[in-house]
Amino acid sequence: MTKESKIPNPTIERLAFYSRPLEALLKGGPPVISSEKLAGLCGVNPAQVRKDLAYFGEFGVRGVGYEIRDLLKEIKGILATDREWTLCIVGMGNLGISLVENENFKKRGYLFVAAFDSDTRKIGRQLPCGLTIEPERKIRELVRELGIEIGVITTPSRAAQRVTEILSDAGVKAILNFAPIQVRTPESCIVENVDFSVKLENLVYHLERLYKGKKNG
Amino acid sequence: MTKESKIPNPTIERLAFYSRPLEALLKGGPPVISSEKLAGLCGVNPAQVRKDLAYFGEFGVRGVGYEIRDLLKEIKGILATDREWTLCIVGMGNLGISLVENENFKKRGYLFVAAFDSDTRKIGRQLPCGLTIEPERKIRELVRELGIEIGVITTPSRAAQRVTEILSDAGVKAILNFAPIQVRTPESCIVENVDFSVKLENLVYHLERLYKGKKNG
DNA sequence: CGATTCATGTGCATTATTTCACAATATTAG
DNA sequence: CTAATATTGTGAAATAATGCACATGAATCG
Fold first, then answer.
1. Where are the domains of chain A?
2. Fold for domain B85-197?
3. Nucleotides of chain D touched by protein CB (<7 A)
4. Can you count the helices (H) and strands (E) in chain A?
5. What is the crossing angle of helices B9-26 and B46-54, to 10°?
6. What pLDDT score was predicted for residue B6?
7. A31-40, A162-171, A203-212, B95-104: least confident range
8. Going by CATH, does the domain composed of B9-79 fall within 3.10.180.10?
């Protein structure tokens, strides 16, 4: 193994980032890419690209560049996106539906195998993707039965912590939380929070500075 | 003005983050909170909270803490979320619909005043929130007429760059892009990208390390 | 086959961010 | 009024992340 002992977190995020243009480049164009080109496509520094990749091995050829096909394979191996993952989702409002129906997820191997809601009017409804909405009390049973590894939360904030506990109790190993609240998990379960409004707040902060002619970034 | 010259970007993101529990604390409970308590609720270091706030002024009282009501007001002033912002959205698939119908946005003053799509079958359809889906060719006209400041992109990847250009040409000052591609904007228009899959890829990277018993990450 | 060009991998300097630790100030108790 | 306690604001240390600059090895040209 290479020097995988102290890998910056931003590096992991960028790896995912790099893979996007690489996928596009697979279809046509030259089979090799330089760190400079790839960096340009992702809006980062070329040295950054090289350093990020070098944490995991020597994937390039000096004087030449990186073989796109191989590089993508390596990145997918590193990120563990070269296999399929089974997910479930809790909270079948508009956002929940948009996620289970999302083609990008399916394409990348993230398979939703169960959908839950607490609203009795929704339970039993069949979704276009083929899933049937199940009641929340079936979470434990289905997580075990279907070997679900990741839980996605798209409930209102007030339900998010409760659902987190049900999911982690049931044996889910990771949670992606879209409710605008920081949920707590036991050691055995890792969590990522996604909060759209935070991104908007970031934008409007910077917008406001622009309007006022301040120069901070 | 205080030392607003060199504010770390993570600070801005955390300010938004801090405001979440503060809003909840407004309704009941003591009127004052310490940096330690707030830090606990947000999972950060107390010194971090104090330093973040100190960039913008002295909002606390030594030996006492921060008046929740005042602090929230200050944060909202800083982030410019104490006013309303007018947004439009392009790409009315499931995700687009879930965003315009989202109550959190409305509650926080982000008002969607126009929705666009290129699919003729969708144009003219009325949404539960009251908006009617307009054709993309009306973007320029409506951005001007309605004074739209922020554009949200929920189209497929292949359309995202084109739509970005239409929006920034039309005079939109900021773009929130949900398509999994890095869009480029002219200087006059700032952009934030949100890519759900990146978060998932982060999770599975760490999951895989756990499974394999490695200790990085 | 030597010279030139290209582009990687990486040590090191630089820059950015976080955390510590403590003086300063308010409150409470005696 | 003094001592004890709580908690902020902040300089300085520690940690993390980025970017430069160059030695290194591959490819190409004459």
1. 9-78, 85-198
2. Rossmann fold (3.40.50)
3. 5-11, 16-21, 24-27
4. 9, 9
5. 100
6. 85
7. A203-212
8. no
Using alpha carbons, list the distances in angstroms from residue A139 to A84, A91, A100, A132, A163: 21, 12, 17, 13, 10
- With 0.90 as the threshold, say if the pTM is over it: yes
Q: How many CA atoms lie within 13 A of B202 on its CB side?
A: 20
> Could you tell me the CA-to-CA distances from B52 to A38, A196, B68 in Å, in that order?
34, 21, 16
Residue in A2, A197, A209 to test binding to B, most B beta-carbons within 10 Å: A197
A184 touches strand C (CB under 7 A): no
Query: In CATH, what class is A85-198?
Result: alpha beta
**Cβ-defined contact of B176 to A199 (cutoff 8 Å):** yes
Paired tokens of B19: 């405001």
Pick from A110, A194, A197: CB nearest B108 = A197
pLDDT digits (tens, 9 = 90+) for A64-101: 999 999 999 999 999 999 999 999 999 999 999 999 99
- For A9-78, CATH gives 1.10.10.10
Tell me what pLDDT residue B214 has.
55
Residue A3 has pLDDT above 60, yes or no: no
Of B5, B199, B207, the CB nearest to A216: B5
pLDDT of residue B90: 98
Give contacts of A102 with chain B, Cβ < 8 Å.
94-95, 196
pLDDT at residue B111, as a whole number: 97
